[in-house]
Each structure stands twice: as structure tokens, then as C-alpha cells.
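Figure 3 (text version): C-alpha cells given as input.
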């Protein structure tokens, strides 16, 4: 392949795409961060102006800044969004798809949604493509992709570019697209804000046909801010950290549950005495033998190896904390000898000994601080991270980057840890959608990792789950007797963790599984779950709920959390936050206000309470100013001011 044609102007790049493939365009874009915003927006704008262009965009996770629903949410989010996203071009097709205003000649199909954003969007629900991550490229190529476009990081020599945040599907798509019998074009948009990562992610410029290169139009990366970690999340994270084994393998996902696991894992490494004291106080070994059988309690002397479709920022914190340090190698004989303890790679003269990897990842997206840390990696640290094909990471089949034997050798003592929305007491897990068929997010790679845990000797799948949720002003159990949809079927049940403990389900009878899950459910729902199981003939009629299970209450949990050290040890934001202190205070108050006004009676009570809000203190006046409610005008603003004051003063 020859040198790609370089453009500085996105519209000229679009002209060339149309000249090469015509006006029937099926555009393949990477999941999440790697979308080339200048090129995509220019192509979409062209399709808006020219109805003879037929544009079908196939992708996943089209990221949009939050907007806020209510007036108070918009007041809160407005300055925050401007601060974080004001310099980033908005993904125009995604905003129009969300607002149901795509032109008739444009279709968007995704295999993974930004969680919850499109739950009630009938157009996007109809065009959703349900597929495992490892099958996604096959299923998207079946749509007839003829244009592939991606954001890349240029190297200093001008010879290579890095797929950086998204080699996950693109590494294989570049090859697949060249094999098609029809005209195709591959477009790269360079951006120096994107960290340059080498190894498999570094490809030749000549792998692309067109390059959009203009330093003057480069923009910051879309960031996904840290979400607060609740006390319940921290308990879940602690229990999950008990299941990790030194010299093992780790996969985790994004969100507060993954961050909570990272925090407790770092505590186990840095302050093992405190971690051990919590372990003893929670009676983990006595109550949950699976932790002692499959986990460990000591610091990580050999360390962990990360093998995760998503490289979350937590892996960098684990690297900094001397946990992510177990290196794996591309030679199966060498790796197996290391596993047997026959070779020390640190002193070996094997040619691969200097090429060990502590991390294989498929894609990444995260907070600004994460991107800064990736830019600041030393050469040695950068060389130990291999962003690569998701089909290498997410299953055990042979791949051009390594065969099954090598993958098995690398992934010893694997713990694949993923979160869920719901779990039924027969062990089926719901992570991606509702029983009426609506999709919340997508399957992604969760099924891949759960299935792989059952294939690998010494591996376990761990599903993390909050035991309850608030819905419509009511507390509801996330552990149910049955549900009309599942992401992970019950025959792949393994380990489930809630804030109340660990349920070991693998190889157990249905009765044992039902009881193990009821044992980690909230006590308010245990009796009903047990009665349903008895009615179905799944649990013996004489089984009673032990007194210990009855302690699964928020009050008991709060006491446990304080004994663990409370927020002094388990902060809501252990890895920092993009919110200011004022915004954290307001955010917590507004969240509580939203929960209290979820019902008709709650709204009435809040309105009556707001009438007696009175004058604001100096500190409260500053918070009101952040919402532009310090000088209200009109009835609505006066009411909102009083509601905010009431929320700030509520315990």
C-alpha cells in the first residue's frame, strides 16, 4: 500500500471518501473514545445537506456529555459540562439520534449504548445490534462497511500511528476490509491529545488511505468522570478483593464497583494489617469459605497481570501501587516454564525476557487524570502495556497475536470481575437490558469472560451486584426469584458478590444456589424470596432463615462501614474527582432531593418543607450562587431555591 493522502480540511477528506466509494456509505467507527470527531461531523453534515447520500453508521458507545433532565439538574450540570467538555466537538449524529431527529437518509446502529441514555428511544432500540464483543466485528461487517474511520496518535517520526484507545476491533477490521470485493477506504484523524501506545496498537501510516492531519483543529479527549463510591460499593469491593490470588490475572470493568475493588486491592497491598483486621471483623473466612479456598489475604509479592477488554484507570493505579507487575510473555514454552517456577524471567537470558507485558487491553476511556497518566508513563511502563485486539483478549481461540496454549499459560488464577443490574436466585444474571426487550447498555464482553472463567483451570467469574436499588421512591431487591431476560444464563453461574457477602454458586444444586443468594440479599426481601423458592419446589419446606442472615440491613451495614474506618479509609473519591467541593455538596443534596420527591407524597412533603426554608447562611448563599439561585426571580426560581436549601439542611 502506498503513502496515504493527507488533508488538513475535513470537508476535502469527505469529498475524497465519496469519490472513492460513492454516496452509499456504511461507516464503521470504533467504540467509545476513538471516534474521529472532525471527520465524522463533516460527513454527517454532508449527509444532512445532501439527501442523495445514504449514510449508515455502525458503532458502539457514542459518547455524549450529560445534559440533565430537570431545571435543577441543568443548573447543576451546565457549568460542569462547559468546564469538562466545552473544548470538545459534540458528536453531532449521536445528539440527533438521542433527540430522534436524524434525517431520513441517515441510520445509526450500535451494539453497545451509553448506559441508560437510549432506554426510551424507539428508533435506536430498533436499530440495536445484539452481539458479543468477540462477534461484533463479524456482525458489523455484515452490514456492508465500506468506510472505516478512527482517531489515532501520530508518532514523532511520521512513520506510524497508534490506535491507542481502540485497537480492539480496528486491528482486525483493517485486514478484513482489505479483503472485501467492493471499494473501501480507511480514514485516520490524528490528534496529539491521544496518548501514543506502541506494541500491537502501533500500525503503519500506510494502513490508512486518507489522513486528516491538522494540529490547529485538534481537541481534548472526551472524559468519563469518576463516579462516587458508596459505602455499599466499598463493601462489595472489599469482598471481591478477598478473591484475588497473587500471581493471578485480573479483568475489571468501569464504574464505582470496579473502582471500589481497586481501592480495596491497594489497601491489601499498602496497609495489609488494616485490610486483615477488616477481613477478620467481617468474618470472611468463616462465613464465605470460597474466599479462603480461592483467594488470598497477603500483599501481592509476584503481582497481578491485567487482561481486560477495557483498560480502566484503575489498572494504572494498580501499576503505581506495585500490584500490576506480573509480566507475561509471547513464547508459550517460556511462559509455562515460568509458571512451573523453573525460570526467573528477571534473570533469564531468553530473548523474550525483556518483552514482558503487565497489561493487555482492548480499549480505554476514563477521566482526564487517566489520560494525563498515560501521557506521563515512562518508556518502560509504556512498553509493558499492550493495547490489542479484543479477539485476543476476550476468548481462548487462536489469534494471530497468540494461540490458545499461550493464552492459557498467561491467564493463570484468573478473576474476571463484572457488574450486573439483577440476579435471579437460580444464578442467572441480568446486565444489559429489561424484560420488555429494551436495551440499557449491551452485552459487551461480559458473556465472553464468564464463559472463559469456566474454561480456564483455576479461573473464576465474579459478578458484583448491589443488593437493592431505589425505584419510584421505593427500595427494591436486585436479587429476584425470576426475571424475563438474562445476560448470563444460570448454567454459567459462578460467584456473586453483594455488600452482604459472597455466594459461591459453581457446581451447587439449585437449592444450594437459592439459599446462597438469599443469604447475601437484603433482609427485607429474604422471606419473600424463600417463600417463592419453596412454592416452586426449589427449597425444602422446613428451611428457615438463620438469624445471621437477618443482619443484612442498611443499619448493620453502616456500623460495619464505620468499623472499617468509614470515609477516612474508604473515600467516596479515592482516585480524585473533576467536581469541585461545592459541586460535591450540591450533587449529594440534589440526589437526595430527587430520591425524596420520586413519589407524589414525597413531592408534597418536600413542597411543604420548602415553605419554611427561611434565609440562607453565607455558606448556603455561595452554593445557591453556583446554581444561579442566589438572586431568584419568579415563582419557579424562588421555589427551587427553597427546595435546595431544604435539601442542603436534610440529614
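Below: residues designed for each position.
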Amino acid at each position: 500500500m502506498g503513502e496515504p493522502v493527507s488533508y488538513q480540511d475535513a470537508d476535502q477528506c469527505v469529498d475524497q471518501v465519496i469519490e472513492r466509494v460513492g454516496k452509499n456509505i456504511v461507516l464503521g467507527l470504533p467504540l467509545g473514545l476513538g471516534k474521529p470527531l472532525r471527520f465524522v461531523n463533516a460527513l454527517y453534515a454532508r449527509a444532512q445537506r445532501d439527501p442523495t447520500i445514504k449514510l449508515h453508521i455502525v458503532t458502539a458507545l457514542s459518547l455524549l456529555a450529560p445534559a440533565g433532565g430537570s431545571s435543577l439538574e441543568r443548573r447543576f450540570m451546565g457549568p460542569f459540562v462547559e468546564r469538562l467538555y466545552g473544548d470538545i466537538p459534540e458528536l453531532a449524529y449521536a445528539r440527533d439520534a438521542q433527540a430522534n431527529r436524524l434525517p431520513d437518509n441517515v441510520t445509526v446502529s450500535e451494539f453497545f449504548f451509553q448506559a441508560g441514555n437510549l432506554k426510551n428511544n424507539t428508533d435506536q432500540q430498533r436499530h440495536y445490534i445484539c452481539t458479543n464483543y468477540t462477534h461484533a466485528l463479524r456482525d458489523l461487517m455484515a452490514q456492508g462497511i465500506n468506510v472505516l474511520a478512527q482517531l489515532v496518535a501520530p508518532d514523532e517520526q511520521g512513520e506510524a500511528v497508534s490506535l491507542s484507545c481502540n485497537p480492539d476491533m480496528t486491528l482486525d477490521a483493517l485486514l478484513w476490509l482489505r479483503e472485501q470485493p467492493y471499494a473501501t477506504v480507511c480514514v485516520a484523524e490524528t490528534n496529539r491529545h491521544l496518548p501514543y501506545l506502541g506494541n500491537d496498537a502501533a500500525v503503519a501510516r500506510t494502513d490508512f488511505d486518507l489522513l486528516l492531519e491538522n494540529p490547529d483543529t485538534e481537541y481534548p479527549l472526551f472524559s468519563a468522570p469518576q463516579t462516587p463510591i458508596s459505602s455499599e460499593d466499598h463493601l462489595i469491593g472489599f469482598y471481591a478483593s478477598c478473591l484475588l490470588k497473587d500471581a493471578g490475572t485480573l479483568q475489571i470493568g468501569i464504574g464505582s464497583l470496579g473502582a471500589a475493588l481497586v481501592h480495596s486491592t491497594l489497601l491489601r497491598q499498602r496497609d495489609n494489617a488494616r485490610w486483615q483486621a477488616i477481613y477478620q471483623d467481617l468474618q470472611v473466612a468463616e462465613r464465605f469459605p470460597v474466599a479462603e479456598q480461592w483467594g488470598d489475604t497477603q500483599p501481592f509479592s509476584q503481582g497481578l497481570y491485567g487482561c481486560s477488554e477495557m483498560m480502566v484507570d484503575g489498572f494504572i493505579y494498580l501499576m503505581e501501587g506495585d500490584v500490576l507487575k506480573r509480566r507475561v510473555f509471547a513464547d508459550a514454552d517460556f511462559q509455562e516454564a515460568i509458571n512451573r517456577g523453573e525460570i526467573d524471567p528477571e534473570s533469564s537470558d531468553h530473548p523474550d525476557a525483556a518483552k514482558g507485558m503487565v497489561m493487555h487491553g482492548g480499549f480505554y476511556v476514563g477521566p482526564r487524570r487517566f489520560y494525563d497518566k498515560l501521557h506521563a508513563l515512562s518508556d518502560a511502563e509504556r512498553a509493558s502495556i499492550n493495547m490489542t485486539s479484543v479477539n485476543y483478549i476476550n476468548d481462548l481461540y487462536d489469534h494471530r497475536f497468540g494461540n490458545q496454549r499461550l493464552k492459557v499459560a498467561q491467564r493463570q488464577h484468573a478473576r474476571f470481575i463484572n457488574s450486573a443490574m439483577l440476579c435471579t436466585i437460580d444464578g442467572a444474571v441480568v446486565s444489559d437490558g429489561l424484560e420488555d426487550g429494551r436495551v440499557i447498555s449491551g452485552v459487551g464482553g461480559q458473556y465472553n469472560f464468564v464463559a472463559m472463567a469456566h474454561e480456564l483451570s483455576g479461573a473464576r467469574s465474579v459478578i458484583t451486584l448491589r443488593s437493592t436499588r431505589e425505584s419510584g421512591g421505593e427500595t427494591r431487591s436486585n436479587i429476584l426469584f425470576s426475571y424475563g431476560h438474562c445476560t448470563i444464563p444460570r448454567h454459567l453461574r459462578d460467584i456473586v458478590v453483594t455488600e452482604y457477602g459472597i455466594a459461591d454458586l459453581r457446581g451447587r444444586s439449585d437449592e444450594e444456589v437459592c439459599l446462597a443468594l438469599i443469604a447475601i440479599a437484603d433482609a427485607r426481601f429474604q422471606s419473600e424470596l424463600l417463600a417463592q423458592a419453596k412454592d416452586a419446589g426449589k427449597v425444602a419446606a422446613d428451611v428457615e432463615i438463620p438469624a445471621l442472615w437477618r443482619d443484612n440491613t442498611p443499619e448493620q451495614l453502616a456500623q460495619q462501614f464505620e468499623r472499617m474506618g468509614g470515609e477516612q479509609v474508604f473515600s467516596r473519591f479515592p482516585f480524585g474527582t473533576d467536581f469541585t467541593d461545592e459541586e460535591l455538596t450540591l450533587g449529594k443534596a440534589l440526589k437526595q432531593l430527587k430520591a425524596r420527591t420520586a413519589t407524589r407524597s414525597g413531592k408534597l412533603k418536600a413542597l411543604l418543607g420548602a415553605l419554611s426554608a427561611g434565609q440562607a447562611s453565607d455558606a448556603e448563599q455561595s452554593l445557591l450562587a453556583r446554581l444561579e439561585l442566589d438572586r431568584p426571580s419568579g415563582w419557579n426560581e424562588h421555589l427551587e431555591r427553597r427546595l435546595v436549601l431544604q435539601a442542603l439542611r436534610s440529614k
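The domain at 5-217 is CATH 3.40.1080.10 (Glutaconate Coenzyme A-transferase).
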